[in-house]
Amino acid sequence: xxxxxxxxxxxxxxxxxxxxxxxxxxxxxxxxxxxxxxxxxxxxxxxxxxxxxxxxxxxxxxxxxxxxxxxxxxxxxxxxxxxxxxxxxxxxxxxxxxxxxxxxxxxxxxxxxxxxxxxxxxxxxxxxxxxxxxxxxxxxxxxxxxxxxxxxxxxxxxxxxxxxxxxxxxxxxxxxxxxxxxxxxxxxxxxxxxxxxxxxxxxxxxxxxxxxxxxxxxxxxxxxxxxxxxxxxxxxxxxxxxxxxxxxxxxxxxxxxxxxxxxxxxxxxxxxxxxxxxxxxxxxxxxxxxxxxxxxxxxxxxxxxxxxxxxxxxxxxxxxxxxxxxxxxxxxxxxxxxxx
Length: 340
Known about the structure:
- By secondary structure, the protein is mainly α.
- The longest helix is centred in the middle third of the chain and has 31 residues.
- The chain is built from 15 helices and no strands.
């Protein structure tokens, strides 16, 4: 009886997870894109691993390292996209992170007297370090994640760091074995370990992934209720926003607002988080979207000009936030007004 290699079962699970993730519009497009790329590279690595170990397919062994070097960068870019505000452009990070991957793939395909695992080890080690640098980020740094979900997000980052650490350990073991032993059977087994570790750890991490970015009002309640000082602070902040329209400044920061109010940054951030369940970026975007609604309703300004006047600098961010708050895109909102 023919049985599926275990790695193929993992590939099926990760492919299903990638499809489900691609349909979740609550997650910003760039984050979805890179997380799906991460899952699909895992699925492909599992498929190739099954062909390699169960059927001794030569071309799969040649292709697997080319896929493996993309796993760590795509994972990092998925999390990093959650920290980017409206100024985020996909071309720059894709170029900056894509060039080293392409160079590593070219080196792997070249007839160099160096094991492919050396290049995988190098790329994965770099992104292991870059993932670790995301851990100190706060709720206000992860602008697309509700504050209450920060703990879950950090757990996902820790799981991914563990995953990349195991990949580094197994690839290092392969490199050492190739230098000291040279046993083909041992090398085939060890080279497959990184793919197995990667697949199984991430499948476990997927259990918490659907909860990561939920931002419905029902789930946004903070474990610690707001105090009277929080309500006073938010009322003061709301009045400041309405009186000055400072939210139309695309470079506005939490520190700058706190200085204008002559209060600690932490007090402003805490009041926003406890009462609204949102971070500073989403709070400000609420004012920007309401400003844009008024402009779309009362003027004939082009949508792009409305976007800039409201404080947004990216069309994708403008559309995403507008849809999140109103349930419609700016174009649909203006069309609906015309039909009323």
